[in-house]
Amino acid sequence: MNNTLIVYYSLFQNTKNLALEIAKQTGGTLRELIPDKNYSFDYNTAAKEVRNEISRGFCPKLISGNESINDYQTIFIGTPNWFKTLAPPVMSFLRQHDFTGKIVIPFCTHGGGGFCQIESDIAKECSKSIILPGIAVNGTVAPKEVTNWLGTIGYKL
């Protein structure tokens, strides 16, 4: 069994596309985080909802994707960059699991802001894990970019 897990949350499919490419190249298990309440599909309304949740430190209940991580040693964690940090469903996932001794690898999609605080926020929540350098993708995922990144961080099947 491959002991790699790719966990992600994606509202507008950008992060999902990056997660799919990582799964394709690593052979890892893909797991989508689905909160109990969907965000609006209107960008401006969703932005207001998210900004409010982040400012309150709200972590939504997950109805899917929150299963045990015990069988996995390497966990890729993907999120869109929302207001310089993680999407609240990803924070829910991080706070509900023990990452002690696991290898955690962040990835994000963004509209020009890069990682901002995402890597440090993940490191804070996963303080007893090994954090490897992540990838931040603006726009469409280039398979070669993922291949090069995986090589740079020394990921092996």
Automatic annotation (TrEMBL):
Any one GO MF annotation of this record: oxidoreductase activity, acting on NAD(P)H
Domain (Flavodoxin-like) ranges: 4-152
Gene3D superfamilies: 3.40.50.360
Pfam families reported for this sequence: Flavodoxin_4
Record-linked InterPro entries: Flavodoxin/NO_synth (IPR008254), Flavoprotein-like_sf (IPR029039)
Entry superkingdom: Bacteria
Protein name as it appears in the record: Flavodoxin
Organism for this UniProt entry: Desulforamulus aeronauticus DSM 10349
Organism ancestry: Bacteria, Bacillati, Bacillota, Clostridia, Eubacteriales
